[in-house]
């Protein structure tokens, strides 16, 4: 009789091993590990950062290690990120605060969504020195980190200044600029993420990254979800993360000042930032060119043979395919 408990222990061990082995087993030869990623964002102004964070969290190719909120009221931005991460069950992700500057409440387009949110109650870490957190992460990572940047970049410029070796250990994927095309297919413009701090972007693009890959307005400026793609996301009310994205959008729509957003039941706004998240794991649907780019003092990104080179997604191979892919990804469908 005394042998039975021992046999049970052995049986349990075998059972446990068989359950756990898919988790702890080494990946098959040739399989890629998820890419460590920093999401550098001005979440809380335009709503596309919220969509992009949800997309990132739903991308198995990417391993989110840090959200670095930058520019204006970074605590407000951190609250938006924290509430989304909490809803996604990802409070393992720390939030770093970047370079802050004043921001009026009227500019905080998701404020009602986080007005009562207590950032000190976030179960993950909120790091006042987000620049230091970025440096520590990149310098200690065994794998090169991809910095996916979808806002103006003062915190990144500061990080490069503080740790000049940072860029050589990382890859930069950014939603920045307007090379041949501007907003709505119009003429080139000083794109917002550049115009806020052109000197910072100039310093970032000049740094010796392992790779620089940009989506300017040329590709990201005409992406949205509408029709069946949008309807499916709108109707995904049982999915807490997508419900949070739509809630955030409904809060944002009546507050945004740079457009009349009366179409939020029908389609998304332009989802600029989602293209940068996509480029962090695939380039299949875009055409890229290596371009030497100068950032002007007034925020234009112009071709200049003396500028640092970047790989730039200038055209879509399959624009409709990307929008469909994005919807499927958000919905966790293949
Ligand atoms: Ca953004």
Automatic annotation (TrEMBL):
PANTHER family: INOSINE-URIDINE PREFERRING NUCLEOSIDE HYDROLASE, URIDINE NUCLEOSIDASE. Keywords: Glycosidase, Hydrolase, Signal. InterPro entries: Inosine/uridine_hydrolase_dom, IUNH, Ribo_hydro-like. Residues 37-306 form the Inosine/uridine-preferring nucleoside hydrolase domain. One of its GO terms (cellular component) is cytosol. The keyword tRNA processing does not apply. GO terms for biological process: purine nucleoside catabolic process. This is Inosine/uridine-preferring nucleoside hydrolase. One of its GO terms (molecular function) is purine nucleosidase activity. Residues 1-25 form the signal peptide.
């Amino acid at each position: 009789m005394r042998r039975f408990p021992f046999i049970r222990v052995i049986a349990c061990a075998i059972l446990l091993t068989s359950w756990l082995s898919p988790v702890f087993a080494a990946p098959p030869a040739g399989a890629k590990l998820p890419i460590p990623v920093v999401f550098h964002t001005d979440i809380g102004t335009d709503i596309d950062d919220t969509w992009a964070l949800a997309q990132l969290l739903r991308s198995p190719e990417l391993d989110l290690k840090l959200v670095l909120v930058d520019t204006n009221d970074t605590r407000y931005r951190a609250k938006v990120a924290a509430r989304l991460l909490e809803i996604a069950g990802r409070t393992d992700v720390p939030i770093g605060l970047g370079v802050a500057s004043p921001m009026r409440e009227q500019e905080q387009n998701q404020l009602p969504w986080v007005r009562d949110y207590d950032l000190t109650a976030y179960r993950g870490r909120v790091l006042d020195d987000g620049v230091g957190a970025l440096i520590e992460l990149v310098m200690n990572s065994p794998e090169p980190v991809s910095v996916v940047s979808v806002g103006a970049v003062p915190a990144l410029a500061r990080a490069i200044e503080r740790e000049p070796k940072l860029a050589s250990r990382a890859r930069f994927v950014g939603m920045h600029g307007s090379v041949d095309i501007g907003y709505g297919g119009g003429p080139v413009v000083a794109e917002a993420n550049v115009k806020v701090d052109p000197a910072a972007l100039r310093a970032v693009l000049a740094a010796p990254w392992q790779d620089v890959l940009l989506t300017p307005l040329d590709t990201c400026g005409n992406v949205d979800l509408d029709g069946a793609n949008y309807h499916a996301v709108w109707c995904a009310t049982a999915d807490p993360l997508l419900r949070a994205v739509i809630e955030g959008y409904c809060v944002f729509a009546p507050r945004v000042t740079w457009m009349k957003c009366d179409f939020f039941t029908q389609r998304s706004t332009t989802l600029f930032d989602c293209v940068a998240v996509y480029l962090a794991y695939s380039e299949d649907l875009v055409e890229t060119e290596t371009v030497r780019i100068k950032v002007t003092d007034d925020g234009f990104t112009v071709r200049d043979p003396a500028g640092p080179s970047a790989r730039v997604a200038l055209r879509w191979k399959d624009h409709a395919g990307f929008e469909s892919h994005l919807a499927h990804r958000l919905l966790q469908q293949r």
